[in-house]
Amino acid sequence: MMGFQIIVLWSDVLIWLLVAAGMGVGVLIAKNPPLLSAWRRVGASRVGMASAVVLIAFALIGLVDSLHYRSQLESKPGQPVVYSVEVLSLLDALVTPLRTRNEKTYSEPFATRLYAKETIDVPGKGTVRDYPRLKYGGIHLGEREDEVAADVAMTAFRAAVLAFLGWLAVAGVVAQIVARDGSGWQKIWRGETVFAWNALLIMLGLILLIAVPLFALSTQYHVFGTDKVGQDVLYQILKSVRTGLIIGLVTTLVMLPMAVLLGIVAGYFRGWVDDVIQYVYTVLSSIPGVLLIAAAVLMMQVVIDTHPQWFSTSAERADLRLLALCFILGITSWTGLCRLLRGETLKLRELEYIQAAQAFGVSNWRIIVRHILPNLMHIVIIALVMDFSGLVLAEAVLSYVGIGVDPSMTSFGTMINSARMELGREPVVWWSLAAAFTAMFILVLAANLFADAVRDAFDPRAA
Amino acid sequence: MLTVKNLRLGFTAGRQTLAAVDGISFAISKGETFALLGESGCGKSVTAQGIMRLLPAAGRVLTGSVQLDGEELLALPEADMRRIRGGRMAMIFQEPATSLNPVLTVGRQIGEVLERHRNLRGEAATERMLELLRQVGIADPERRLGEYPFQLSGGMKQRVMIAMALAGNPQLLIADEPTTALDVTIQAQILDLLARLQAERGMGMLLITHDLGVVARMAHRIGVMYAGELVEVASREEFFTRPRHPYTQALFAALPEVSRRGLKLTTIPGQVPSLSAMPAGCRFADRCAHVMPQCRTVSPDWREVGTGHVVRCHWTGEAADVETIGHAITELNIEPGRPFLEMNQLKVHFPIRRGLFQRTVGHVRAVDGVSMAISAGRTLALVGESGCGKTTVGKALLQLIKPTDGSVKLGGGELVGMTPKRLRAARRHMQMVFQDPFASLNPRMRVGEIIAEGMTVLTLKVDANAQREAVAALLKQVGLPDEAAGRYPHEFSGGQRQRIAIARALAVQPELLICDEPTSALDVSVQAQILNLLKSLQEELGVAYLFITHNFAVVEYLAHDVAVMYLGRIVEQGRAEEVLRSPKHPYTQALLSAVPVPRLEAHTSVIRLPGETPSPANPPQGCHFHPRCPQAMAVCRQNYPETSTVSPTHTVNCHLIG
User: Fold this and answer.
1) Least Cα separation, residue B429 to chain A (angstroms)
2) What domains can be seen in chain A, in order of their start residue?
3) Contact B453 A375 (CB under 8 A)
4) Which of A171, A223, A407, B34 has the fewest C-beta atoms lying within 10 Å of its C-beta?
5) Which residues of chain A make contact with B488, given a CB cutoff of 8 A?
6) How far is CA A313 from CA A305, A308, B365, B423, B653, in A?
7) What is the rounded distance in angstroms from the CA atom of residue B436 to the CA atom of residue B193?
8) CB B129 within 8 A of CB B111
């Protein structure tokens, strides 16, 4: 057993803090009956629960990818312990085959040979131009390369059966929880349960039926193909999830307090406060965003480059750059939400319940916290999710211009960016783009649907 | 002319369809006004929409027939229906502010109807438009044709709406609460106009209203609707002399009137049943004073009780015994000489800013020198039309709006210019109840939290347990169950919400409650409940009310003192009997005579005020009222009249008296 050294990156700290905060909020909600009943309404929404399952699956991948370590290098006894310069995550450890089994260059999904012809030495025949055999993809088949379809179908079928059995076990446990007398099964399928168990179970079944065969196959094939340097695309997708989540969540954390505070203050106090805030965001939003971000990122890059002593590994450097990017995106993207909240506050402050509170001499801050903020929450939730998808996309744009995440870090943006070059090839290399696009689409769609369910549940007029 | 037979209209909600109008039948002949009377949510407007086939997306015509001159409207294809809408049938809506398109000129909007239904264009159309505008009493129609709706006042917009409705020469006019959003003097003008046009053109008219006064003024025959059904149809005379259905009787009994001063108003307990939970038998059974066992099981059939007077009720008794339960204390004869709150020359001016540097170019004189005094335990009614500044007075009293000048003295202490800290302590002596019960409660807070907020802020009861007990006591006081504290405002009806708002104001035990039109958004029967509640609270707690309203019936019923406001100034004030029985100011006289009375015998002499209230940014020279005053003299145009004393308690600002 080799030793290892735990590495805590700044983004890991933020992500786990978010998880802790989420749990804390959960405990608070459980103690507050009206909030609890609102979340129960989210639980009753089929779409909401189905999308929540998808989001949790993504979040789990991101969390497993947020536990970093450096493994110990072999050294002679008596010498000081030396650790590898490569920072790995728990996810890397779990999918070691995906990470290490790199081909030479492009190969199609489920291919056994490379995508381009090369000059190869064939013993006895001399040099010929042909598609070279992959080092890992379909290697267990040996010479029977034409049996790929049958082999894939067989493996997928076995894995699917396994997944189905696993799902049945989960569903059985759920049925027992719903009703102990055995009628739980019926209740779930007829939609008679308060919690939307049927949607949850169907979505879970779908995910299992897709994911389990995919991973069973990925040990023998490159299910999504390989990229230019021969890296497995499935591995890249898994690594991109964490980048996407950090960009979406941490940026929001930076932006939210500023947008909410300034928006409400401007709308509530009006007068010169409003003027100042309006001038600031008008100026900010009239500067081309990409330009502003480019300037900030390049300055940050200079700082990072001139202080190599700050970082002991390249992962730490990439991580700092990612956080800097989140911060800069946050600073530049608060104006939209701020303007929205200012307008809504202007409307709210004229309402009679605000005047009633003023008639009691309630202080301004208390009015803002108790009367205005709760009535703006639905806007905040919607804006957050819209921004989440927008930010994931913005990262792609910035990576394309070369001012996005560190080139050593995998993200949907860098994947799409490199796939852009490949689309110009003939024959087309389509799998990188398709895989990145699908993964991002599912993530953003699930987030949007979940936000809709939350908003509906929290709207007291609709309840 | 128009025959509606067994019309059923419903709304789809999910998989089921809920009938909002359940089998109503009536007929309107030429030159006749048929009034559909009922409280909100009983299906009046849906009926009108169904007849015009303008139901919202979820609305469905379930069964029945609507025939106009023998032509079945429900079977017509949409293209033919468009020919009838605006052509043979036209509609006037409640809210003149939103029923005209703000980006088109008046001429364009009327012209659209003329082009579609009369095939008039160019010169001919303009001629016709001018004629129509003249008919609806708009002065200077040539100029108005080119104007946009924002340049017109509310009454003028409603006149333009009427002109548009008349443009297609309709045989039937459907008026959906045509005057509810207007002031009494403007309402009188519009009702006169509608009556005159109908007589001239021999139109049929379907009038939808909740106001018995409007019905008495306009209708020939009346149909009372309740929970989607017609329950009584009668001619005007029969209806006002012998109402038979318990619901109709209850509506009459719930009206506040001067004759009921000091008596508890009859209220209708409960609420209109919801569409999804209609009772099987008579729909009114749960709220009826004469309910019998068979009412709960058998829906009553039509029964003829007089010529053209039919009623759907099992109960065959005559008029209900009018309960005459008096309030415990009717008059609190506290010396008027001990005022508890005094206002002296209170002024609120809003600056009008223009230009690049936002220079002040003028002032809107919303309140321009108002002096009043309120004594403990009494009710002062502040009456006036919209825009006269009465709400601003209320808010300036509470220092929600900073007064520009003048003084407000509360028990001897000056409130204007007080430091915020000391002002907070003073706030517990005065509280406000607002007009719209739907906007005055924070939808995200529970009722208990809403009521407790004042106590927390003014640190009256900080302990959670004491606060909970206080909230429970307050809820009981305003007639709501204990468990209401844990629920959210949206679970309550309008009347219940207004009770919550009253409980919130009472939580800090104020000596003065400023009620800003607290019943104008409520139905008659609910209004009666709230007025009873306010009365009994005054007895129990000795709280004084400043009652801001435009509803004279409420004033007559409730007020001890009355102040009449016009354009930011008080023109007449005194004890209620004095001001209401022998009004001295021409404006007060006109206001009182413009109020539609829910009785057969109308006013003997009706004073009709021409024109509308001028803008407070630019009040007329001299007496503000002189451009509309029927008795204006030369001196009225020169200078504002001094205050003259009629009796020790009755003062008037008019040259006629001075």
Assistant:
1) 10
2) 4-100 (no CATH), 138-218 (no CATH), 233-458 (1.10.3720.10)
3) no
4) A407
5) 34, 460
6) 13, 10, 72, 62, 89
7) 30
8) yes
Q: Closest Cα partner for B164 from B201, B124, B202, B117?
A: B117
Pairing of the two strands B309-312 and B302-306: antiparallel
Residue in B440, B444, B446 closest to A356 by CB: B440
B424 chain-A contacts, CB cut-off 8 A: 361
- Does any CB of chain B come closer than 8 Å to the CB of residue A35? no
The pLDDT, as a whole number, for residue B289 is 82
Which residues of B touch chain A, with CB atoms under 8 Å apart? Answer: 395, 398, 400, 420, 423-424, 427, 430-432, 434-436, 439-446, 450, 453-454, 457-458, 486, 488, 490, 501, 504-505, 508
Query: pLDDT (tens digit, 9 = 90+) per residue, A202-240?
Result: 999 999 999 999 888 888 888 898 888 888 899 999 998
The amino acid sitting at A235 is Y
Query: What is the rounded average pLDDT of the residues A339-348?
Result: 93
Answer whether residue A7 shows pLDDT above 90.
no
**Partner-chain contact A362 B508, CB within 8 Å:** no
Question: In a 3-state reduction of DSSP, which class is residue B606?
Answer: coil
pLDDT of B324 higher than 60: no
Beta bridge partner(s), residue B353? B360
Q: Which residues of A306-319 are buried (b: 16+ CB within 10 A; e: fewer)?
A: eeeeeeebebbbbb
Q: Count of CB atoms within 10 A of residue A140's CB?
A: 11
Measured over all CA atoms, what is the biggest interatomic distance in chain A, rounded to whole angstroms? 98
| Average pLDDT over every residue of B505-513 | 89
In one-letter notation, the amino acid at residue A38 is A
Written in H, E and C, the secondary structure of B25-82 is EEEECCCCEEEEECCCCCCHHHHHHHHHCCCCCCEEEEEEEEEECCEECCCCCHHHHH
- In angstroms, the CA B545 to CA B514 distance is 6
| ipTM associated with this complex | 0.80
Average pLDDT rounded to a whole number, residues A71-89: 81
Residue B409 carries which side chain, given as an amino acid letter?
K
State the pLDDT confidence band at A259, using cuts at 50, 70 and 90: very high
* A312 in contact with chain B, both atoms CB, cutoff 8 A: no
| Nearest in space to B101 (alpha carbons), one of B164, B186, B174, B178 | B164
Tell me the C-alpha to C-alpha distance, in Å, between residue A105 and each of A88, A113, A121, A227, A240: 23, 10, 18, 6, 20
A463 falls in which pLDDT band (50, 70, 90)? very low
- CA distance to partner chain B, nearest, from residue A338 (Å): 21
The stretch B248-276 carries a mean pLDDT of 81
Contacts by A157-160, CB closer than 8 A, 24 or more apart? A157/A213, A158/A216, A159/A212, A159/A213, A159/A215, A159/A216, A159/A217, A160/A209, A160/A212, A160/A213
**B49 near B57, Cβ under 8 Å?**
no
Alpha carbon of B424: minimum distance to chain A alpha carbons (Å): 5
CB neighbour class for B653 (10 Å; exposed up to 12, middle 13-18, buried from 19): buried
Sequence letter at residue B97:
A
Question: pLDDT tens digits, residue range B534-548?
Answer: 988 888 888 899 999
Provide mean pLDDT across the span B482-496: 86
Phi, psi angle pair for B335, to nearest 5°? -50, 125
Number of other CB atoms surrounding residue B400 within 10 Å: 16
Residue the block writes with tokens 């990439």: A318
Distance of CA A117 to the CA centre of its chain: 37
**Confidence band (pLDDT; 50, 70, 90) for A168?**
very high
Q: Find tokens 């306009």 and name the residue.
A: B218
Contact residues, A window 443-462, toward B, CB-based 8 Å cutoff: 460-461
B564: helix, coil or strand? strand
Mean pLDDT, to the nearest integer, of A280-309?
87
